[in-house]
Amino acid sequence: MNPSVSAILALVWLAVGGTAVALMLKIYGRNVPTSGRNKVARVHRALGWIYVGIYGVFLFVMVQKILGYAEFNSLQVMHLTLGVSIAPLLAIKILIVRRYPKLHSMLPVLGLTVYTLSFVLVLLGAGPFLINKLNAPDTEGKTDVEIIALGGQLLEQRCQKCHDLDRVYDQKGKKSEELWTSTMDRMVKLEPPLADVRLPILKFLHAEFAAANTPEGVMLTGAALVEARCQKCHTLDRVFQYTKTHEQWRATVRRYAELLPDHIRKDEIEPITQFLFEKRGQPESEEDKKRKVFEARCATCHNLSRALDHAHNNELSPRRWRRIVKRMKGLAEEREIEAWSDEDRDTIAEYLSAQFQDEATTEDD
Predict the structure, then answer these.
(1) Residue at a domain's end among 134, 158, 184
(2) Is residue 364 assigned to a domain?
(3) Which of 20, 54, 137, 259 lies 20 to 30 Å (CA to CA) from residue 30?
(4) Range of 292's domain?
(5) Tally of structural domains, the chain
(6) Per-residue pLDDT, 19
(7) Whole-model pTM over 0.85
(8) pLDDT given for residue 127 in this prediction
């Protein structure tokens, strides 16, 4: 949730809760005629449900945020504790109103307790946000050197609110500028107030922490990611026992990224792939090149197994395959799906006729 929207909603929440508490005190603390008492009670009840609804939104957002934290600092633990503790108090209050009329004398105490916790909760959340907003650095007119120096200070002030700085320093020289940018943007999503200091911190990370934009730097980034990510499921010995083409390594890394999206991120696929290919890569064979053309062209109209099954069942010669593929090429062009070159046509025909060449007939149809 946007911090400004969250702050406004928090103030509305406090206003609704404060009004509901004032009406509750009026009901239980003053002599009010029965007709007026019922009217006040209805308004109090309506405000109470609005309060509960806003609390539900905050609780959902809070749970989403904490799922992204690797570790918690003391302020976050306190915020979480206060936020969660409101839930059972609200449940008890609603239960007493609905089921236990003899305990109605407890309602003012419960209501005041819930509102006090709400006030402290908002103060812990909105307070630092407002302070950071007021103290947001002004980078206009500053040189790159000054912005980088400011970014180093802000890194120490702001980043260790969520985790130890050792976590950042351990990655020094192991991430490219693109990966640092991706990391910073991910942190901003988890902690939106960081948006105000994103630029100086990012400039500092790029200048002091990013791996050089050279082949050696790319390898350092890939090596660090392989060590950090791949050992989650198995040893590195298992990784390095294989040799694969660049495309095969990419397919492997992408498959693990889909299985563990919170562990291997999309922007890490290419650095990992490049490192593994440099260490344990093999050149792409002519067969692989032909297969890629076959997959790229034929899959646009039908399942690839249809062509392979036809090759297996009919044992066609290369010349016959060229005729079939030429017809498919014409159909694709008629349907304005994709334009094939004659070279593509011949490559596909060669690939299909070679799949079962031990069985294929040499008859020239």
Answers:
(1) 134
(2) no
(3) 54
(4) 286-355
(5) 3
(6) 94
(7) no
(8) 66
Residue 310 is assigned to a structural domain of this protein: yes
Which of 116, 134, 152 delimits the end of a domain?
134
Return all residues near 314 (Cβ < 8 A) that are at least 6 apart: none
Residues 245, 259, single domain; the answer is yes
- Residue 214's closest CA among 264, 274, 267? 274
- Same domain flag for 162 and 243: yes
* Alpha-carbon span 61 to 270, nearest angstrom: 32
Q: How much is the pLDDT for 52?
A: 93
Distance CA 4, CA 361 (A): 74
Residue/partner pairs of 249-253 with CB below 8 Å, 24 or more apart? 249/273, 249/276, 249/277, 249/280, 249/281, 252/276
Neighbours of 95 (CB within 10 A): 11
Classify residue 365: in a domain, yes or no: no
Say if residue 11 is in the same domain as residue 123. yes
Residue 333: what pLDDT? 77
| Secondary structure, 3-state, the chain | CCHHHHHHHHHHHHHHHHHHHHHHHHHHHCCCCHHHHHHHHHHHHHHHHHHHHHHHHHHHHHHHHHCCCCCCCHHHHHHHHHHHHHHHHHHHHHHHHHHCHHHHHHHHHHHHHHHHHHHHHHHHHHHHHHHHHHCCCCCCCCCHHHHHHHHHHHHHHHHHHCCCCHHHHCCCCCECHHHHHHHHHHHHHHCHHHHHHHHHHHHHHHHHCECCCCHHHHHHHHHHHHHHHHHHCCCHHHHHCCCECHHHHHHHHHHHHHHCCCCCCHHHHHHHHHHHHHHHECCCCHHHHHHHHHHHHHCCCCCHHHHHHHHHHHCCCHHHHHHHHHHHHHHHHHCCCCCCCHHHHHHHHHHHHHHCCCCCCCCCC
pLDDT of residue 55: 92
pLDDT value of residue 136: 67
The predicted pLDDT at position 362 comes to 43
pLDDT 10s digits, 34-50: 777 888 888 999 999 99
